[in-house]
Amino acid sequence: MSLGEFELIHRCFQRATPKGVVAVGIGDDCAVLQPTPGCQWLVSTDMLVEGRHFLSTVEPDRLGHKALAVNLSDLAACGATPKAFFLALALPRADAAWCDAFAQGLFALADAHGIVLAGGDTTAGPLNVSVTVMGEVPTGQALLRSGARVGDEVWVSGSLGDARLALEVFRGRLALPGEAFAQVRRAMECPQPRVALGLALRRLATSAIDVSDGFLGDLGHVLKSSNVGATIRADALPRSALLAAQSTGVQRLCTLTGGDDYELVFTAPSQDHAAVVALGQSLGVRLTAVGQIDPEPGLRLTDAQGRLFDSGLQSFDHFKSP
């Protein structure tokens, strides 16, 4: 069944808005938001384009999940509490079953993080999903890319590289058996934003960023913003058992530049090492120290024997990467 524009909004996206940050939600020309006294808004937008950010084979509920997850990950990187989001959706055809499943995946994640859909737009066109999220932090407490300090340790949450491993299988460059492929495909299509970790890091981390375009590039943004450098133990980057079973070259490709991981990379004072470990244990999140911040600019990689090497790899760039 095909839907009209307003049928689509009413059927799939209009819900009762709980009292809170959204004073007036879907149904007016603008949403009316009420900030919490003593807090600052944090706002981020991410666009997902078919063929560039996701494959045509992705299930709609997973696409709905990922569209919001990648935005929640930005809030997590800044230590923000999710509050409201806006959805702009272009569809080749407003198919009721597809839209119902997309909305189910979207709202399941929204409800899990207490974030409310406050408005947006729908139109006909090539499949394109754009989400804008809004979150709050107490004034002056946002985690930024610019706070890394010489001597800080560099940490990574979870594991890196499975999403890129799935992409390599889709591209026909690697092969994995059924359940193994399903595992890395879930990592690619259903990332889990580290919101709770981001909130907890406000009292420990000096800087943070989420891994969307690849570890090398994303950490590079922190180093540039903070005017520092780093030495990273490349083979210490956390990875799944599936990825660890691959060749060293594949492991480094996926962990260093894979992207689409939506884990957090953050820096924290070395004297707080035990506190960071304890935080990971309390949240049930794997946290791995992988290097340190240096005064000398640039990002240096060492192998398992401590030798410097040049990976020759570059992270994803929307206008340069294939």
From TrEMBL:
Chain sites annotated for binding Mg(2+) 2: 46, 74
Residues reported to bind substrate: 53, 260, 316
Q: What residues does Mg(2+) 4 bind to?
A: 29, 44, 74
Task: Tell me which residues make up the PurM-like N-terminal domain.
Answer: 27-137
Enzyme Commission code: 2.7.4.16
- As recorded in UniProt, coiled-coil segments are none
Q: Which reaction does it catalyse?
A: thiamine phosphate + ATP = thiamine diphosphate + ADP
- Assigned keywords, A-Z: ATP-binding, Kinase, Magnesium, Metal-binding, Nucleotide-binding, Thiamine biosynthesis, Transferase
- Where Mg(2+) 1 binds, per the record, is at 45-46, 121
Q: Name one GO biological process term.
A: thiamine biosynthetic process
Q: Does the keyword Magnesium apply?
A: yes
Q: What class of enzyme is it?
A: transferase
What does this protein do, in the record's words? Catalyzes the ATP-dependent phosphorylation of thiamine-monophosphate (TMP) to form thiamine-pyrophosphate (TPP), the active form of vitamin B1.
Additional remarks: Reaction mechanism of ThiL seems to utilize a direct, inline transfer of the gamma-phosphate of ATP to TMP rather than a phosphorylated enzyme intermediate.
Its family remark reads:
Belongs to the thiamine-monophosphate kinase family.
Could you tell me which PANTHER family the record lists for this protein?
THIAMINE-MONOPHOSPHATE KINASE
Q: What is this protein called?
A: Thiamine-monophosphate kinase
UniProt source species: Inhella gelatinilytica
Q: Which gene encodes it?
A: thiL
